[in-house]
Amino acid sequence: MTALTYEQAMEQFDPVFGIEVHVELNTATKMFCGCANEFGAEPNTQVCPVCLGLPGAMPVTNEKAVESAIRLGLSLGCAIRESSRFARKNYFYPDLAKDYQISQYDEPTCFEGSLDVVLDDGEVFTIGIERAHMEEDAGKNTHKGGTGGIQGADYSLVDYNRGGVPLVEIVTKPITGAGARTAEVARAYVATIRDIVKALGISDGRMEQGSVRADVNLSLRPKAVAGEDQDAVPFGKRSETKNVNSLRAIERAIHHEAARQAGLLLAGQPVVQETRHWHEDTGSTTPGRSKEEAEDYRYFPEPDLLPVEPSRAWVEELRGTIPEHPAKMRARLKDEWGFSDTDMRDAVNADALDLIAATVEAGAKPQAARKWWMGELARTANDRDVALASLPVTPAQVAELQSLVDAGTINDKLARQALEGVLAGEGSPREVVESRGLEVVSDDSALEAAVDDALASQPDVLAKIQDGKIQAAGAIVGAVMKATRGQADAGRVREIILQRAGVDG
Amino acid sequence: MSSLERADVARLAALARIDMTDDDLDRLSGQLAAIVDSVAKVAEVAGQDVPATSHPIPMSNVHRPDEVRPSLSQDAALSGAPEAEDGRFRVPQILGEEA
Question: B22 lies in a domain?
Fold first, then answer.
């Protein structure tokens, strides 16, 4: 069997893919009990009889989680079922305290949607959404002994703090027609879901922390021969690669699976329908449990929970809270702000878009807002190794800082010092400017005195300027700025020097 | 004709992690089939106009507000565990299955 590249696989076969995305909701409490839904607590301190699955404990649905699920469904263009119910999905695994997971089966709350995703070159691809349903997360296993992985472990330890945390699982229809752009489309789809949940404010959308997790299904079928309809060619056997948890990994996993399956098919070997594990380090997959065993979940309606029947009025009210599609919003902002493609892409990649928007909202010009967030503040965030949004400065403060610059109260250099003060918790930009005495000195008599002092200490400069070497004035400007600790208005200083030399600026 | 075969019971037992002898399977497949067949009679009586019922009480939308309530202490949570370590439940090795 020869190793193929993704591109070679795409020349020979037509890919069909599907993605399941799990979104962890940022509710205050779990799906079916009042335990805190918060990451990072001591193990088994956010648990109760309900999420530990103790006998007799009764689950009750979290209203906020239902609301979040409906808003997400509406954002995906889904219909909201008038009556939906929960179901038990039965399987044994130590991270599942009850030996079943409460999920939804035949009556998911959200179904039949579609989502447009925009690729890097602007091409729009429509993804069909099968359903979006509510369920609960499992606990966390830590494998002990061996190499720390599940293989060869002596035993495992279980922390149920995450058990019962609300999830929405979004399942696509089988996606055809993406051809060689399949990996890109898959990546753009998950990125769009992430952006939507963040815009809705229902999840922090952080893939690296597992708040958004994806399983990628892929199969290959022969390319249609001339005159044949590609849609009429039956699907091949698919693999499901679990827990592909970064945007880059989604592309890589599709590249790997397409090449692997194409290699098998070209060698006349079958593709086995199975679950596969993704290995980030090697960029490859290995087989997991066999599918026929795994699929026998014996779902049945959850008797302990009553149906969810959102009123049409409530659904319409929630529809009114749905933010603009992230791609449309970006296109609109790019136009409004006059950003270049690069400006826009950099701001998106730095997670700065919301911050810039809020700064503009607070009165700053878009380019000025961009300059602060993508310059000084991005560097500070990078140095401190924190997200831009977690810096201790608000968009309103950045707008205030820029307004001080625009008014001539401070120059860029002083503004950076003022920002330092804001980041150090010294107060608002205006307060820092006052307390640190950062205002630009534009009082002419003070500046004239400083210029005269500087000229006196560098007596040859005036002659140089009079000889036409106007750039020599730079040395005096520098000396004055130094003497005034950067607070002089450099433009005014230059004018005064030229006056002294009797030269027109 | 029985709706539940011996092989079905063996499979359910395996899925439920219950060890069953051949005798158990013989005996239970007969008994369980009788139960399943009896319940199935309901379907004969209920016509198309009777929707399937999963909840006998006509209630819906019983939710709770998203407010944190006290959890158990770690000691209390682990008090029923056969084995615990590092504040976690200790369970036997998990083989042949995935994380």
Answer: yes
Confidence at A7, pLDDT banded by 50, 70, 90: very high
Tell whether B59 is covered by a domain: no
Checking if the pLDDT of A350 tops 90, the result is no
Query: Which chain B residues contact residue A62 at CB under 8 A?
Result: 63-64, 66
Q: Show the domains of chain A with their CATH numbers.
A: 6-314 (no CATH), 324-436 (no CATH), 444-501 (1.10.10)
| Structural domain span for residue B38 | 6-43
What is the DSSP code (8-state) at residue A269? P
Answer with the residue of higher pLDDT: A409 or A221: A221
In the predicted structure, residue B96 carries a pLDDT above the cut 70: no
Long-range contacts of A315-324 (CB under 8 A, 24+ apart): A315/A70, A315/A74, A315/A80, A318/A67, A318/A70, A318/A71, A318/A74, A319/A74, A321/A71, A322/A71, A322/A74, A322/A75, A322/A200, A323/A75, A323/A196, A323/A199, A323/A200, A324/A199
Of B61, B72, B85, the CB nearest to A47: B72
Q: What is the pLDDT of residues B2-18, one digit of tens each?
A: 578 899 999 889 888 89
- Whether B92 and B86 have beta carbons less than 8 Å apart is answered as no
CB contact under 8 A, B69 and A242: no
A443-485 confidence digits (pLDDT tens):
777 788 888 888 888 888 888 888 888 888 888 888 888 888 7
Judging contacts by C-beta atoms under 8 Å, the chain A residues touching residue B57 are 306
- Answer yes or no: do A277 and B98 touch at CB < 8 A: yes
- In-domain check, residue B93: no
Task: Give the number of beta-carbon pairs within 8 Å between A and B.
Answer: 142
Partner B, chain A 280-339, Cβ-Cβ below 8 Å: 288-289, 296, 298, 301, 303, 305-310
Residue A228 reports pLDDT greater than 60: yes
Q: Comparing C-alpha atoms, which of A478, A457, A467 is closest to residue A501?
A: A467
Question: How many other C-beta atoms can be found within 10 angstroms of the C-beta atom of residue B21?
Answer: 8
Closest chain B residue to A62 measured between Cα atoms? B64
**Residue A254: which of A18, A35, A494, A501 has the closest Cα?**
A18
3-state secondary structure of B11: helix
Distance from CA of B19 to the nearest CA of A (A): 15
Question: Does residue B61 form part of some domain?
Answer: no
Number of structural domains found in chain B: 1
Residues sharing a CB contact under 8 Å with residue A372, sequence separation 6 or more, in sequence order:
A359, A364, A398, A401, A402, A419
ipTM of this predicted structure: 0.88
- The pTM (predicted TM-score) of the whole model is 0.80
* B63: chain A residues, CB-CB within 8 Å: 60-63, 66
pLDDT tens-place string over residues B27-64:
999 999 999 989 888 888 887 888 878 888 889 999 99
Q: Which two tokens stand for residue A102?
A: 């409460």
Cα–Cα distance measured from residue A109 to residue A104, given in angstroms and rounded to the nearest whole number: 8
